Amino acid sequence: MRSHRRHAAALCALLAPLAAQEPAADPFGHSRHGGEFNEGPRRAAYAMPGMSPQVRFPVHGLSPAAQAFFDQGVSQQHGFWYFEAERSFRQVAKLQPECAMAYWGMAMANVENWQRAAGFAAQAVQRQQGLPARESLWIDAIAALYQIDDAQKADLQSSDAEKAKKAKEAVVAKKDRDEKKLNREFLRRIEAVVAACPDDVEAKAFLAIQSWRNSGHGIEITSHGAVDALLDQVFAVAPAHPAHHYRIHLWDSEKAERALRSAAQNGDSAPAIAHQWHMSGHIYAKLHRHREASWQQDASGRADHAHMMRDRVMPFLIHNYGHNQEWLARSLGYVGDGEAALAIAKNMAALPRHPAHNKLDDGEDIAGYARARLVQVCEDLELWDDAVAICRDGYLEEDGTVKGEVQRLGLLGRALFRLGRVDEAQRVVADADALLLRARAERAAAIDKAEDEAFAKKTDRGKTVEAIAEAGREPTNSVRSVLDLRRELAGEAKLAAGDASGALAEFEAVGDMPKWLLADAHVAAGQTDKAVEILAKEVKERPRRLATTARLLLALRAQTKPENDARIAELTAELAGPQYAIGAAGLAVRAGLAPADGRGARALGEGFAAARGEDFGARRPLADLGPSTWSPVPNPGFDLVAADGSRRTLAVGGGRPTLVVFYLGFGCLHCVEQLKALAPKAGDFAAAGVDVVAIGNEPLAKLQEHVEALGDQPLPFPLLADAELAAFKAWHCHDDFEDMPLHGTFLVDGDGKVRWQDVSFEPFTRIDWLLAESPRLLALPAQSAAR
After folding, report:
1. Backbone angles phi, psi at 661, to 5 degrees
2. Is residue 504 within 8 Å of 525, Cβ to Cβ?
3. Predicted TM-score (pTM) above 0.90
4. Is the pLDDT at 197 greater than 70, yes or no?
5. How far is 753 from 294, CA to CA, in rounded Å?
């Protein structure tokens, strides 16, 4: 291995001059139209099934094909499917480059990315002259929002990258300073469109959602009823319009029941848009109708899975997907279906990660959500055997952070103590003790670093003290979390030893102890009145959750008071009802809701028709929307000539795991950096059982010249030529709008399934990260797409 790395180091020195010899005219994956086009969709749009047939936004001069894509983009925009909306509007611009409204659409699709939106708005303003009055009003609206004047328009589109960057930064600075004022003016401009075009359904829909958006910018909605009435005007003309989504947002945090009529229709208004199904789940969840909420979230996930697997998109690139799936796991847990909840959470944990888009230590990324839901479901439903298996099988693995270890050790220790495996649990206690030493050492290092930096800068004493305090704040939180963990485990040890009062004392000293855990300890300590008080409050505030309702039933039984009989009968009847899906383990068995042998357990689908309200309406079969979980898709394969003249293939059915890298020739400095980073690691990939192959867009003769220039120190993996870009296109490493190849990196497993990918205007260079991620993915089973 050392000789291999010495060889690679020498090779890296040879690669750099090759890039310098190539002309710089090729953009090497960067858009020719400006930076805002780099990060957006690069593949062509297509006529997607499942869009709203009731969206009509006529644009003057568009061909029928371009108009169809424009309407599709507006439909996607109404469903907050911004990335696909931008793709549809880009397709309009591809078909008719001078269409100002195509760029208006791209700006609207970037409502959450002010810099990119301003760049597109400038493009729209540039093409505004001679437009019909209605379209000109729409462009005036975005010009007002992003403050596009003639000077700024020129700077935003400047070929001078630094000037364009400064112009975009100025736009963001204005937003930060005047956001409330700018959004109020934007609303007034949309009102002007409605006033000029009173029959324009789309204008009314956009006015409704902007009224809601402005509430997030400090502009109060003075009458929710007035906005609701505006939406009624939309539905009077187009009853199945996707603006049902907007009524849900309007009432979600106000009076959720006012949105029930739209919640029942929203998904079917644009069934291929996952967010349309998801938002209805908000309303049912707010009304504590968790089985109906779980149906909506399941539908949303299925729509996303169908899209991901059809279009070869990684889950971590899908807006809102992680949030939807973690909420689905929560809802399933609330109704008692631990098996289904854990299946969803485990699928999330197994999904591909990414150093920018899906990080294990980010609680709002898919991987972070997965850890939280695995812990919550196991603890809420007392699935202790599952908890141990989850830690053992790598779904809740050591993540290298104090926070992650607190999660893992807390669940594992509690499960082992509850299962009576005390010796194993005590080893977890020892791990927690070691974690405390580590957390304190990390805090000391952070404080020392801050002090050293302040000293080097000759900072005065007062500011040095402030810097030290700030540096120690987050590490101190970590230390406290470990101290709480140790106290929780001490409580579990005492509970296992029969010292319920001692356990309760430990648990009560923990700041954010789950209410159900405290209540259980109160029951064990004979303090049933306190347990009932805690649980009754929880059930009142958050009804229809098995974790608290079943424990309240147990606490009432433990009181042995005759006056509890009616309430016990009421709770028993509720838990036997169709709104719950009782599992055959843990809490359900302890509460007498299911026998220990598993007979009598109720799956989620059983009795659902009786559980849902009449206002839920008739629904299509979930399987029609897509599979219940994501699974990797077959690779497209390739059959290309290598630099040595041999043919190299990758079968669709697979073979050995392979890392496939698409690079843009030796003239691309970024590609050379990627190859330089990859060369020393090729042996490590081989040791992990992964072959490496690189596919370039240069003609074979040119590739052979470069390989010859490397002399007797060639790259330690084959280089293939794809000058016709057949493989680039098949693997979606191609910008269809500008007809140029893109950078791509793919991990293909032994069955030929694509486990991970990164396609971008820049190459993926985090090789060490990918080297660690690859064995994890390859060790996990490739789940089939269950219907």
Report:
1. -115, 125
2. yes
3. yes
4. yes
5. 30
